[in-house]
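quick one: fe (ii) ion bound model?
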Amino acid sequence: MAQSELADKGRPEKVTELPVKGFDHVELYVGNALQAAYYYQHGFGFDLVAFRGLETGERDKVSYVLKQQNVTLVITGSLKPDTEITEHISLHGDGVKTIALQVQDASAAFSTVIGRGAKIAIPYGEHTDENGLFRQGSIHTYGSTIHTFVERHAYKGAFAPTFKTRKKSLGKPIGLLAIDHIVGNVEVGKLPDWIDFYRRVFGFRIYQEFDAKDISTQYSALISAVMTNENTSIKLPINEPAEGLRKSQIQEYLDYYQEPGVQHIAISTANIIDTVKELRNRGIKFLTVPKSYYEALPERVGKIDENIDDLAVLGILVDREAGGYLLQIFTKPVQDRPTLFFEIIQRKGATGFGKGNFKALFEAIENEQAHRGNL
Ligand code: FE2
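yep, here:
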């Protein structure tokens, strides 16, 4: 589909943008929250800041709240069979359940999006206790994924009601700063519907689009659109598979996740070399980049501050745009199924997503797919 066609398909009347401050947290449903929390604490340098489970009076589930600068992950597991959490894990494996958005007024946000046709996932609720007022409500987005609107400015407690403060820091943060973007994969032909959803319900706009020619290799392809709000504090790229000689990496994801869902979470750092060195020391595995990528790099990106040999040793990718350049790297999947992974990104004036790296990156992903027998 040509870019203009995608942009124009079913374009609704301009909808007033829903005011959103930024990403509040991301919640993962996992098979073993204790062990997954250990992985994110030790592997990615997160601190434990809050907990809920049997010890706090919670009978059905357990959650570890992990924080590093402005990134909050909630790792949740089930204490019982036949819960919404075990169903999610059985179908999807470990994965993202919630992309939570922080708002000034959750009541207004929730009634606005419901009025615009969003479907309720968890009804709006207000909680008042000695810590103040906490308000939230959740709606469905692609697959089993939900958006929760969180209002916490009048709440002083640990993370959220029912959570207790439980602090454990390993004392060695690795420089992760904030969530840069969160990417979803949807089925063939569904991207226009999801563009429409974010326009109609959130009043978001298309920030960038990529067609099959931008994102293709000899074998597989995808098309993509990035939805954002006016100040770009929320960036939500959405991919759908495109026809290729072999199976698109997006289709592989959909086959294993069984439904649309979050493909990757991109987290920013102010020094990607130090951050990736530390991640590698801790055993986090990244996609490998062919040597030829670095041979072609000086000509492709021109002068950069970093030493290319350092980047090559660590496998960090570089892309230049009009406003500057960015450095990025992608982990291997972080659970058994080839589904969710992380991106580490450092922006030096560039606001895009590394379009110039797509080909090198996808060839690296296809190598992995081939190793898994899925190409
Ligand atoms: Fe990304």
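The chain has two domains: 22-169, 176-372.
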